Amino acid sequence: MSPPSDSTPVEISRGRSLPRNPTREIVIGSLTIGNGHPIAPQSMCATRTRDVEATSGQIQQLVDAGASVVRIAVDSKRDAEAVEKIAGEVEANICADLQENYKLASNLAPHLAKIRYNPGHLYHHEPEKPWQDKVRYIAEMATKGDCALRIGVNCGSVDPAKSSAFDKGDSVAPMVASALEHSEFLDSIGFTRYCVSLKDSDPNKVVEANLRFSAQKPEVPIHLGVTEAGLPPDGIIKTRVAFEQLISRGIGDTIRVSLTVPNERKAEEIVAAHEILEDIYSGRVRSVVHYQDSGINVISCPSCSRVENSAFVELAEKVKELTLNLGEHDITVAVMGCRVNGPGETDDADLGLWCAPSFVNLKRGTEKIGAFPYDEILEKLEEELDRLITAQKTV
User: Fold this and answer.
1) 117: which residues sit within 8 A by CB, 6+ positions away?
2) Multiple choice CATH, 297-394, 3.40.50.300, 3.20.20.300, 3.40.190.10, 3.30.413.10
């Protein structure tokens, strides 16, 4: 169903006029993006998708806060069945975050405004089948269901075939190559109702990836975001850095501020998105030109329906507190809330924690240290931090 008229994004006309990339126009339910249309904020539900009442309530909460699109995770047939009920209960432009099972697109498309798929997750299901066949199927279902697509490329889950084709130190190139490959394939089969996102937890890499992609495909609408931006206010600052640099160059058609917050505070993402947009359009640029690339850096994913224990958010807050006095040390700690993004998206951190229902996996880079109960993990993390700091001092 379409959202009420008061949830439609309003162009901020005060202050200076900003350039906009001449992207093509695409329709996402009642929303139109690209071709100079207003930049549309969106968010993602943190409720269990199969909990129809809770998810419908959170969608409405986000729409009331000013979300133009609301994304929900779909990991199973039960989730897909719930989507049909949810779509009948709320007036919103709903986007399904399609994970490994691409065939669920047939169940979802008739009830949605948009489907988001991750090129790096396509190889999990039916690995023997070419990714082109899977994308063709998704596009066919989207056409039949009258919905748009998003190609969602994430730093921690890039297609291994793309990652291996570039130098290990360049994480931006595989992301851009994957986004280009998929957008060019969709174009080749005549499906152009799509947008692209290239996300990283480092705002500088987000800027670089989107600049590279947009230089080669300026006609493709872009969804902007800093994935795993973390807890506010740091998560808002990281996101602001990327948005100010990209939107001021005409890049960006939809945006999301991804914050690690409890369910009841999800609307803060939309509030922050509107505030950043208003500042940019009013000429109030608050961020530094280049985000810090030294010192302690805690990244954490936004709470969503794939989080298997709500204690994840509290753990991220405690990790932030634990590291407050380590600012002079160049250490990255990643705190992830689920098995989908946790394993891969902690690989690049010095220390990574990804949370299961009753324990937390602790990693040192790509090496797994062990799995520990929630009430023991901080002590283990502190031990590893001490080892890292001692090692840095002896270099």
Assistant:
1) 98, 102, 105, 135, 138, 149, 150, 151, 152
2) 3.30.413.10
